[in-house]
Structure formats: structure tokens, C-alpha cells
């Protein structure tokens, strides 16, 4: 269901929100860059005794996968600037999501700090809260009509990529925590559990696609980011220090599902609406 919200005049609260989100984005993105080792210091892959490195668990994406953060940070920076423009002060979609986008940026910075401190259990909690915030953004962006084209596309694309990547990263984070905690193979073994988790990732990608089928500007980026992360899991397990052909195949299949699900869901929905 899509909700249409009437445009209202810009208020002082809108101006406060715009300035706060802009300044908060500078702090959050800058802090994340410094904390991740972009300007020197310890990289995330080396933090927590390497628990989140590309070869720590069968569900760890290969190193090039993390280059997607550059695109996500760029999108968040553009979003912060676009939402701060005077003409967007009363934009109903930006009113509904801007604070939550800022919350997601701050949570990401907190996650980096927690990982650098070596607190893997806390990192799982933070990334799950981040995933919940991004899922809320998906709901809001799906239910509220597009307003100005540039603002809508920037917001949808950025949140979609962010949600898709964090969905995969959360799975890798949980796997890293469990491995670090030495919980054992829990009956299925590392390969078996990895395949189960990858199947759940594929199901999650379909759920996103079906829910947001009427907002392809959001769910197609979600699918692209999930496919990117899952494909790099497949590559990492096919060639590298931690080879697992079964996991590689499962990850490749999950990546294909994530890529196609939003396209199929959107096309089917449009055909059904056109037939009515």
C-alpha cells in the first residue's frame, strides 16, 4: 500500500533536521573512515584478532567485496547534501526517513568502534540494530510516494545498497562471532551451517523483493548489493586459503536469487496490475 502525503510548508523543525543530518553525516562518515583504517591505523580485517578477515569463516566475503562501502558512503554523503537543500525542507519522504538514515550512519560508526575494541558479541548486537533500522527505512520508502525525482532516486538507491550489503555483512558477522566463541560445528559442520545460512540469505532477498516490488528503485539496489556480497563469498571459497566448493556453489546460487528476485517480483506485479 502506498501512502500519499500532502506537501506542507517548511518549518523551523525541518531546518533543524536538515542541518543536524548534514553535520551528523560528516561526523559519522568521517569517523567511520578513520575507524576503518582508511587514513592509517588498524584495518577492520585485522581487528578482533582477524575474526572478520576474508578467510576467518566460510561465510566471509573476499576482500574486494568491501569496496562497496565507497559507493555506499558516497551515496550517504550525496543524500546528506540533497536533503539539506532549502527546496527539500518540507519533502514528506525526507521528513519520514532522514533521522533514521542518520541513525544508520551513526550505528555503522559505532559498529566500527566496537569491532576495533575487539568486542565481537557487541558488534553482533549493533549490526542487528543497524539492519532493523535499514529494514524500517525499506518499509517507509516503499509506502510513501516518490516526491522530487533526484531526492527520491538518491534516497532509494543509497538505502537499497546499504540494506543489501548489511544483510550479507550481518550473516558474516554472526558467523565470525560464533567461530571466535568456539561454539563448535553444532551437528552440521561448518560447511552444512554455511549452506543453511546462505539459503536463508536467498530467502531474505526474495522477501525484500516481494515486499518492495512496487518500489524497484529500492529493491533492485538491495538485490544488487546482496548479490555482490554473496558472489564474493563464492569467489573466496572457490579460490584462496579457505576453499570450500560446496559453500562456493551455494553462495553463487544465492547470489543469482538475490539478483533476479527484485526484477521478477517487479515484473510480475506490473503484469498483474496491468491485467486488472
UniProtKB/TrEMBL annotation:
Membrane-crossing residue ranges in chain numbering: 21-45, 65-85, 97-114, 120-139, 159-179, 191-211, 218-235, 247-268
Membrane topology: Multi-pass membrane protein
Annotated GO CC locations: membrane
Signal peptide per UniProt: none
Keyword terms, alphabetized: Membrane, Transmembrane, Transmembrane helix
A Pfam short name: TspO_MBR
Location(s), subcellular: Membrane
InterPro entries referenced in this protein's UniProt entry, alphabetically: TspO/MBR-related_sf (IPR038330), TspO_MBR (IPR004307)
Family membership: Belongs to the TspO/BZRP family.
Name this protein carries in UniProt: Tryptophan-rich sensory protein
Origin organism lineage: Bacteria, Bacillati, Actinomycetota, Actinomycetes, Micrococcales
Amino acid at each position: 500500500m502506498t501512502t500519499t502525503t500532502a506537501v506542507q510548508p517548511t518549518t523551523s523543525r525541518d531546518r533543524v533536521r536538515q542541518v543536524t543530518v548534514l553535520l551528523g553525516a560528516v561526523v559519522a562518515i568521517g569517523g567511520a573512515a578513520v575507524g576503518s583504517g582508511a587514513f592509517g591505523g588498524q584495518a577492520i580485517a585485522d581487528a578482533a584478532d582477524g575474526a572478520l578477515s576474508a578467510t576467518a569463516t566460510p561465510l566471509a566475503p573476499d576482500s574486494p567485496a568491501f569496496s562497496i562501502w565507497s559507493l555506499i558512503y558516497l551515496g550517504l554523503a550525496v543524500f546528506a547534501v540533497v536533503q539539506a537543500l532549502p527546496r527539500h525542507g518540507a519533502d514528506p519522504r525526507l521528513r519520514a526517513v532522514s533521522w533514521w538514515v542518520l541513525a544508520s550512519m551513526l550505528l555503522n560508526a559505532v559498529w566500527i568502534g566496537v569491532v576495533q575494541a575487539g568486542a565481537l558479541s557487541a558488534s553482533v548486537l549493533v549490526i542487528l540494530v543497524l539492519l532493523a533500522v535499514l529494514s524500517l527505512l525499506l518499509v517507509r520508502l516503499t509506502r510513501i510516494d516518490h516526491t522530487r525525482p533526484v531526492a527520491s532516486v538518491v534516497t532509494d538507491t543509497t538505502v537499497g545498497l546499504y540494506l543489501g550489503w548489511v544483510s550479507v555483512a550481518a550473516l558474516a558477522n554472526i558467523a565470525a562471532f560464533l567461530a571466535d566463541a568456539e561454539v563448535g560445528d553444532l551437528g552440521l559442520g561448518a560447511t552444512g551451517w554455511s549452506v543453511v545460512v546462505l539459503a536463508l540469505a536467498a530467502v531474505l532477498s526474495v522477501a525484500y523483493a516481494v515486499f518492495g516490488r512496487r518500489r524497484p528503485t529500492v529493491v533492485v539496489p538491495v538485490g544488487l548489493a546482496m548479490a555482490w556480497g554473496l558472489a564474493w563469498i563464492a569467489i573466496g571459497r572457490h579460490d584462496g586459503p579457505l576453499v570450500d566448493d560446496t559453500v562456493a556453489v551455494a553462495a553463487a546460487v544465492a547470489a543469482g536469487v538475490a539478483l533476479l528476485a527484485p526484477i521478477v517480483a517487479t515484473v510480475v506485479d506490473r503484469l498483474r496490475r496491468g491485467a486488472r
